[in-house]
Amino acid sequence: MQNLIKCRRLLLPVDISKVFMKEIDELIKQYGLEEDAEYVIIPFTDRNGSQKRRYLLKRRFVRIVYDAGYFVDYPLADVIKAAVKYPECLLSEALYLSSQESGAQGEGNLNDTDFQNKPA
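Structure (tokenized):
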């Protein structure tokens, strides 16, 4: 087991977390978001004028599990963009709306079957 872990470390770039965090830090600055050690915090005002916050764990991917029995792992950067654009929607709805817009602009659609996984 110890050798397997050493082999994996050799295959992965050492600074992959720094690259990931650099992208997230740029989004936090771009959208004027807040953060702490574990969360990206998205403040927004709801329809009633109440101040609310959405907390997203700082992980590379956010897994959304759908009713149909499959799940999709979305990159945190895509989740942040969708949550900022559609703050009052559920994350799954915000990601769907965001992917529909990007699909209409000629980019890849996040709901492609390549990203769908059946749970074991």
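Strands lie at 34-35, 39-45, 51-57, 61-65, 71-75. Residues 16-31 form the longest helix (16 residues).
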